[in-house]
Amino acid sequence: MKKKGFSYAKWGYIFSIPFVVVFCLAMLYPIMYTLVIGFTEYRGALPTLKALSDPFKNYKTVLSEELFRRSLKTTFSIWLWNFIPQIGLALILAAWFTDDHLKLKGKGFFKVVFYMPNIITAATIALLFSSLFQFPKGVINDILLEFKMIDEAYNFAVDPKITKGVISFIQFWMWFGYTMIVLISGILGISPDIFEAADIDGANGFQKFVFVTLPNIKTIMLYTLVTSMIGGLQMFDIPHLYSDGGPNNATRTAAKHIYAKGFSGAYLYDEASAASVILFIIIIILSAILFFLMRDKDAAILEKQKRQMEKKYRQEYKAQVAAQKAKLAELEKEAK
Amino acid sequence: MSKTDKMIIASGKKKNSAANTAMTVFVYVVCILIAILCIFPFWAMIVNATRSSAEIQQRAVALIPSSNLMQNYKVLQKYESSGFRPLIGFKNSMIISTLATVCSVYFSTLTAYAIVVYDWKLKRAFFSFVMAVMMVPGQIVVVGFYQMIFKVHLNNTFLPFIIPAIAAPSMVFFMKQYMEPSLSLEIVQSARIDGAKEFFTFNMIALPIMKPAIATQAIFSFVSNWNQLFLPLILLKGDKRTMPVMVSLLKGDIYRTEYGSIYLGLTLTVLPLFIVYFALSKYIIAGVALGSVKG
Lengths: 336, 295
Known about the structure:
The complex is a heterodimer.
Chain A: H1 9-38, E1 40-41, E2 50-51, H2 57-64, H3 66-97, H4 107-119, H5 122-132, H6 139-146, H7 160-188, H8 192-200, H9 205-216, H10 218-232, H11 237-243, H12 254-263, H13 269-294, H14 297-335
Antiparallel strand pairs in A: 1-2
Chain B: H1 3-49, H2 53-58, H3 69-78, H4 86-117, H5 123-133, H6 142-151, H7 159-162, H8 169-182, H9 185-193, H10 198-209, H11 211-227, H12 230-235, H13 243-249, H14 259-294
């Protein structure tokens, strides 16, 4: 570490300038601007900032709207109904794919196929599914009729529950492969010694999964949960293009609500800002809660101990240096 | 070990292997069913892109392509006035995704280099800051960003999608994690002794060493830029539209009865992604796994 040389330090600053400048321009400033707009009156096709007598007016308006509160609930339930089956299936598949006893062949092929929906444009997938679910002649209707699961073609688009379910399913379908690969790499990172020890203790496959695998991939599961939630609560593409928030606003997510307020002819930028700040705060709070609930307590304690030790050593070192300096001064005095 | 012990173990093994075989078969069946579930929608899309609207009206599910591809394409062209022009969308998406990806990987590697190679006072604080902003949800920026872009008259240009790519916190994090073990400071040191300037050392020594990481991150950056919808939807109009924005136009009324053409339009928009995916799937899968462990 010490080899780097002191005179080169300025290059550290110089090389991080582009990042810092662009970050300030493209993220920090827009965030600040969004905050400011949220506390002022700023609407219309050619908006200007006007101070409000009550700076929280937009927030009050947005929060009092039934549509917004419902959109938050909708967003959360669509996300939850995609995440639970997603992590469940991903865990099962990951357990199978890492189980040497099964001697599974073609894992590479399955991974490629399972991950495929994730890479395809969400906009295209939304329209593809709306074509598949078409009424009266659509692929899904045809299949259901073929297998006599329904008697006549069903108009899926007018059923709020089914529309919500389909959107959850699309999200699940797009993301389970990703989650599976992430969990597999987590499981492969566990030291084989632990599994061997469990084998010697006579644990069966299920026990090994519950008592060895699961606790050891806790961090990775937390990572999946948090990233999925941050992405899921901003869900826009699929509700916008699959059902346009309908029927009867049943699939109007928070992001769709912000879009409707600010960008589809209503020009209510101030209320859109307030709504996005509220969404932002909700995301931050939920992530913080998740981190707190699932934090690695042992690691935190270790880290704390490490820091205390370092502090102690530093103090001791300083004391030693001081003592030696004093000694040196004394010696010099004596020499004189 | 006595003879009976051995026999017990052997029979146990046999039972185990029978159960294992049954399990393996079950796993295969489940995996194949899921694979069909993943492929089927795309298959239906591609097959229906070659069928006429009348054929689809009669029977929406077909496994074998028909011969109506060109007619469907002509219908799409006929409605070009609605704005759906896949070739232009392809070109625009290509320009934006390529330039944004180049910006992201180059400057993220440079920022990571600043963190890994140099000792500066604010280094730790800067890295913590990068980690913190990694989690900032994009939705919070949208209104302010949109207004800012309008104020400086950059709406309907590609710059709002390319310049911000320079600051990609999660990519900086990934590059830093990758660079720490793979770039030895001795090499940097010896380059300095040979008289190389710092910037030259980064371009000629650090970048080549980072090639594997750059390749993975470039793929993901490209795909996520390609797939973006919200910002392009509100900032780009007319012939500046990207592919996903073009896709959203297929929702329009004029296509309502042109079933085959809609499927063809959708197929055209994902064709480049399919090609990229099947050419690079190995690296993409490895990249997902790597990213998760490092992140």
